Amino acid sequence: MKRLALLVFALSSAFAQTPEWDITGNNLLTGTYNFREALWITDTQATNTLNEAASQYGTITFDGQGNYTASVASWSSFDNAVTSYTRAGTYAISASGFGFIRRTATDGDYVYGAVANGVFVGSSTESGFNNLFVAARQSATPLTAAGFNQRYTVAYLNLATANLSQVRDALFQINPNGSGSLGTVAVSGYSGGNYTALSQTVNNASYTVANGVATLNFGPKNVTDLLSGSHQMFSSAAGQLIFGGATNGWDIFIGIRTPTLASTSYSGLYYQAGIDVDRAPLPGGTAILDSYYGSSNTISSVNSIIGHQRLHAAPDAAYEYTYSDDYTLSATGSHNDALGLQNFVSNDGTFRIGYGRSDFLGLSIAVKVPAFSGSGVYLNPTGVVNAASFTPFTSGIAPGELITLFGTGLATSTAVDATFPATLAGVSVRINGRLAPIYVVSPTQLSLIVPYETTGIAEITVSRNGLISNRVTVYVNRTAPGVFAVPATGLGLAAALHPDYSLVTTQNPARIGETIAVYLTGLGAVNPAIANGAAGPVDPLSRTTENLDVHIAGRSAKIVYSGLAPQLRGLYQLNFEVPTGVGAGSQYLEIGGPDTFNSQILLPIAGPRAATQDSLVRTRKGPTSSGSLSPSRDR
Q: Max alpha carbon distance in the chain (Å)?
């Protein structure tokens, strides 16, 4: 990949800052892993032609102490040849499994992501290109031809040429028989600018296995087919996950053992990564390429998901996209999401894969995160969330944000103090050494304000009567908007008021042209500045300094006021006018900052036409265009 080194940005000193990223989870990434990576590289949105498309695959051996060696082969559109090499590098994994693998610019730079259940998934979102990286720990018992005998559901993403107009994805099942046959493979999918679902049948598909690595043969290679040619295949240690691609292409596939019924284990936190092409603009111009890493919290009791993606749409800077979604899991363990992806969940709930349909073509993978526990004063390394939106910890925090920490032994009793003292019931919290104003303490949960001085990486510790907790690190953004809901679950309807201070509800909806007030947190710095934990001033009002956008059902709303809620502590307030053209019903209220975009909460609207949940407008507009954005490695 000769051009790749020319297309990424030079390394910065972001990782030399203090505090440094937690590395107590380095032992979670240990042993030899097989990996596959698809890299689609462009430095403009003005053309569908990529600067380069490439794949990398091979093995990485992690020593559990932050060092690795890699044996890599790559295939690039730049020279259409296999290049093999070995590399050494370092990595940093926190106690949660979330972190990054450091690489040279030639190899594709940092990969950000997380490890769980022996699988690492991630993307190089800060590096100026788009990619999806999957690695799985090798089994102590290598795969054999006879041992490959389970049915798999597989999602596949490919480019016939290094041009986004040729994007295609597919879904198929394979049924290896343990003696080299995959049987007849029925393929369905989408290709290029054709929005009609396509189908293909591959007869006499076969496989071989050598040294624990399989080769799947789907007949002669044909660039017009959804699926063809030979593909290298790796397997996870337990065989629940397979992945790979052509050794002479820049495609990638991911499969799970085919579920036979809905999984009762589909709940909790998942680490996720993916790559998408929004081909809706193709008829009039250029498709939009993006990739991401992040996490999502599946709340099975209400069939809802609260998720986060660190999203990079080339060539713009990456930003935090947070969202909610409802789902219905079918009898065969599948569900559709708001962006049009069809997802499949393994029977044990460990893995989820997805492939795109309609406008969005793409491929995604999610790995369930194990439960964490500890003794004494224990702060859950995944338990740092926005107190309003409950978005997962991978989305980071912002100065002035009201956050909630989860753990055990955090306090000896429950106490609440609306004055936000530095110590409450013997409990204090330090973020980068500064005392954080505390609102609520209990044995398993704390609520507090992030000091306004917090930047870069936040190091959080809890003290209970002098006993100090473990250290947890999260990234710090300029903004992290989260809208308070009624009830306070991060789902449902916004905590919004009419001008007469009555609550906006489905029975008393907001009206076109009306100015309403919404309460939220995570809007960042304010002017004039206030002391940490102080109430919002009245004269003058303390306004946000970051540029913000508000959209309802995809339509821009005029902001009348954005700042601290007067005379209240720990709250921000947004006043805005409901724009014309918004249909009746509960519509998405979306808040964008310079480095974030939240599409999570609904706002009831009175309007001229009816809208159903299925017809709600969902956008991925990205951060406010008026913000100052530049690629960086603060992530």
A: 79
